[in-house]
Amino acid sequence: MELPLEQQEMLLQILKSRIVASRRNEIASDAQTSIAEFQAGKLKLQTANEAIQELREYLSI
Prior knowledge:
0% strand, single chain, mainly alpha, elongated
């Protein structure tokens, strides 16, 4: 069974919206985890330049 073009477009829009919502929820969850780890002292405070340098060093290994 094939859906009419208009219904296919509606289905595509629904799926795109669900993907966006799922990604948004994932980002929010990651942010909550990061905030909790920071408040617990598990993460160190650094400038953007320090974080970038640390990442570069990590990736060059």
